[in-house]
Amino acid sequence: MHMNIDCGLRPETPKETSYSQKVWLTAAIVVLIIAVLLIARVVFNVLLMALAGCLIATYFHGLGDLLERKTGLKRRICMFISIVGSISLLVTLLWFMGAKIQVQVAELSNSLPGTINTVKDKLGETPIGQKVLGYFSDNNSKQLFDTARQFFSTSFGALGNLYIILFLGIFFTAEPSLYKNGILLLVPPDRKEVAKRIMDRISFSLKGWIKGTLLAVALITIMLAIGLSVIGIPVALILALIAGMLKIIPNFGSMVAMIPGVLLALTVSTNTAIGVALLYIVSQTIVSNIITPVIQKKMISIPPALTLISQLIMAALSGALGIILAVPLLSMVIIFTDELYVKKINKAQLIPASELDK
């Protein structure tokens, strides 16, 4: 005889989560994801500033190495001369050229609105020009000016952080082994040789980019300053400096730099505008396709389409600073991919199948 004894103990069923609890849980997850993405974007911007500091340190070290080879002085003295001499030279140039630059900036600011109106009047005289003016309707022009304002405000924000980047570069220059050894401490012992090789390749690549960029900036500035002065374009020095500074941005910089020069030339005559446009195109072609590749031979050859894609991505993420650092950052990504993935794949393909089966 079996007796059913019910002691009142029954297995507890899990409580069902209410609808409101599910809503609050989903909202908390969404807020957490947004917070993580915002923090990641801020951290990414800080890492970009650190990369800019590394580029400045690479420049100081390259100039210090050159002084050490040429003079035979101690390395610390050469590095001190490299840092102090570079900053002093920049301040001296700005001091002597500051008055003229200020006058030409004021002249350009005052003449540019009238120049735009003159260009509109001349474009309105031709059917093609009327179509161009129709494209730049109120909505399109407003969107264009908003984009330009956002770009330049981001640029000036990046310039506002220039002193932080400069100090980072000086710190990296003073004690490079401290930071290099600190990075190597985070790498497993069996991968330290690979890490050293990656850092050496990145150093060579960045040096090539810096050499090519500095030479391109100097040559473009000099060529355009002389050419625009000969043609008789006003504020030639400012236009040349703008083109030189924008040269650090591949693809976009050259096109943007040409706009104010051609607009001012149109106030003189159409033939003058064509001559100025040809001057910009020829100078950019000579520097970009002949001189810069010779200097940047230590840098990885990057396809133009890949460069453009990286610039668009970096512009969306970090604005002007991201566009400037897109090429060296892409070069670093390619080096990491080659060392950590491509070489492994190639090495595995060289191993016979009989060895893999063992």
From TrEMBL:
GO BP, sorted A to Z: transmembrane transport
Keywords annotated in UniProt: Membrane, Transmembrane, Transmembrane helix
Transmembrane segments: 23-40, 46-67, 79-98, 151-174, 214-242, 248-266, 273-292, 312-337
Origin superkingdom: Bacteria
Subcellular location: Membrane
Cellular component annotations (GO), alphabetically ordered: membrane
Membrane topology: Multi-pass membrane protein
InterPro entries, per the entry: AI-2E-like (IPR002549)
Pfam families the record matches: AI-2E_transport (PF01594)
Record family assignment: Belongs to the autoinducer-2 exporter (AI-2E) (TC 2.A.86) family.
Protein's name according to its UniProt entry: Permease
